[in-house]
């Protein structure tokens, strides 16, 4: 329940809201913190606010901003409790404020920050929690959170670039498909119906267009239903281990797209390994975390195999070399990093290198896609025009 209290402290009247189980708990909290309670009233939650609380979700940007703010306040000399108290007052998003309040309550109850985060595994990754635990053990929580915030911001920027590059092609392709569907289903049947009244031989392209148009006109509701049903079962299949593995293998073999997906996986994995190792986490533990942090199941399996080989005594560079999926530069630089004792710095440099490679591959993809889309559009429009106009031309010639 949400309560609004009016209290006196240091000669000033303070009016704020607080979440508690009862008004007695609010009064007890105020008295323990040096406030003189004047009034405590329960705030009735409106239906709109309740609906907003249900529909709101924490997104990646919320976690990035939360991490950056906590890191900055810790490095400024504030305690973790003070930092969370400030964030509770300043955070406008109810669901984020509720999470911070819950974490704050657990820490005040004796839990560590990393343990308090375990209740939000769906929001905070294994990498995040492991780094927080490492920071608590080393006494460098603020420094590690800053490094983690930098990593999250780089990840956000990298994903934003990839999405931005794909927005234009996706919009054009989807728009093209929608226009084609409307033309074939609703517009062309009326136009092509005129040819039935004339005794004229229709060209093959027109016959194909009439057949497709007739099918779409009669069965378009079933086509839409089939698309939705197919999409549903496809998502269910991807949710299985075998389905995800097969799909990930297929995507890696795609021209241009496969290279981008592969390099993206290497960017994330090398950056994650670098930040883990530089934070004092062992290579073996870092590899087990990377397995969970990597989204592509092919790379997950590869890193899992590498982890097992490292556990048996092999060096990471040698274990990487035995997996065909990893490029030679990753193998060679990892071996050099292990030999020089600068593996974390080497992996950071590798992640930057792979990020540049990914940006170049993305630019190449967008450069290739745009003319391809124009060609497909030109062929499609040309086919429609030829199929519609050719019978008219034949008809005028028959009149001559």
Describe the structure.
The chain has 400 residues and is mostly helical. The protein has three domains: 2-44; 58-150, Type II secretion system (T2SS), domain F (Receptor-associated Protein); 151-400, Receptor-associated Protein. The protein has helices at 23-32, 47-55, 60-75, 80-90, 94-108, 113-117, 126-138, 141-192, 204-239, 241-252, 257-278, 283-293, 297-311, 316-321, 328-340, 343-399, and strands at residues 2-9, 12-19, 36-43. The chain has a three-stranded antiparallel sheet, with helices on one face. Strand 1 and strand 2 form a beta hairpin. Helix 8 runs antiparallel to helix 9 (204-239), helix 8 runs antiparallel to helix 11 (257-278) and helix 8 runs parallel beside helix 16 (343-399). The longest helix is centred in the last third of the chain and has 57 residues, at 343-399. The protein is flat, with a radius of gyration of 30 Å. The relative contact order is 0.07.
């Amino acid at each position: 329940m949400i309560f609004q209290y009016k209290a006196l402290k240091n000669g000033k009247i303070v009016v704020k809201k607080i979440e508690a189980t009862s008004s007695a708990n609010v009064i007890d909290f105020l008295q323990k913190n040096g406030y003189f309670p004047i009034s405590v009233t329960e705030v009735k939650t409106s239906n709109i606010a309740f609906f907003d609380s249900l529909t709101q979700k924490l997104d990646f940007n919320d976690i990035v901003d939360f991490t950056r703010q906590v890191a900055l306040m810790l490095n400024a000399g504030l305690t973790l409790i003070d930092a969370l108290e400030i964030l509770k007052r300043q955070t406008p998003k109810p669901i984020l404020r509720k999470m911070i309040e819950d974490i704050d309550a657990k820490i005040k109850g004796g839990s560590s920050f990393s343990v308090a985060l375990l209740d939000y595994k769906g929001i905070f990754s294994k990498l995040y929690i492991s780094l927080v635990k490492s920071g608590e053990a080393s006494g460098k929580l603020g420094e590690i959170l800053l490094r983690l915030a930098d990593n999250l911001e780089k990840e956000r920027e990298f994903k934003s670039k990839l999405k931005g590059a794909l927005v234009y092609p996706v919009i054009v392709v989807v728009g093209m498909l929608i226009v084609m569907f409307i033309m074939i289903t609703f517009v062309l049947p009326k136009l092509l119906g005129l040819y039935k009244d004339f005794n004229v031989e229709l060209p093959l392209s027109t016959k194909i267009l009439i057949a497709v148009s007739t099918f779409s006109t009669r069965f378009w509701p079933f086509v839409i239903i089939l698309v939705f049903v197919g999409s549903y079962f496809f998502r269910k299949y991807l949710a299985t281990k075998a389905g995800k593995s097969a799909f990930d293998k297929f995507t890696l073999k795609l021209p241009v797209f496969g290279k981008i997906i592969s390099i993206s996986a290497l960017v994330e994995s090398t950056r994650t390994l670098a930040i883990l190792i530089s934070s004092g986490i062992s290579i073996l533990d870092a590899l087990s975390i990377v397995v969970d942090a990597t989204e592509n199941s092919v790379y997950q399996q590869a890193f899992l195999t590498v982890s097992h080989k490292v556990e048996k005594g092999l060096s990471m560079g040698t274990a990487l070399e035995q997996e065909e999926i990893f490029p030679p530069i990753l193998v060679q630089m990892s071996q050099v990093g292990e030999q020089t004792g600068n593996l974390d710095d080497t992996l950071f440099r590798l992640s930057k290198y792979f990020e540049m490679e990914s940006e170049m591959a993305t630019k190449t993809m967008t450069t290739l896609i745009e003319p391809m889309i124009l060609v497909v559009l030109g062929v499609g429009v040309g086919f429609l025009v030829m199929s519609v106009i050719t019978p008219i031309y034949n008809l005028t010639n028959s009149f001559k």
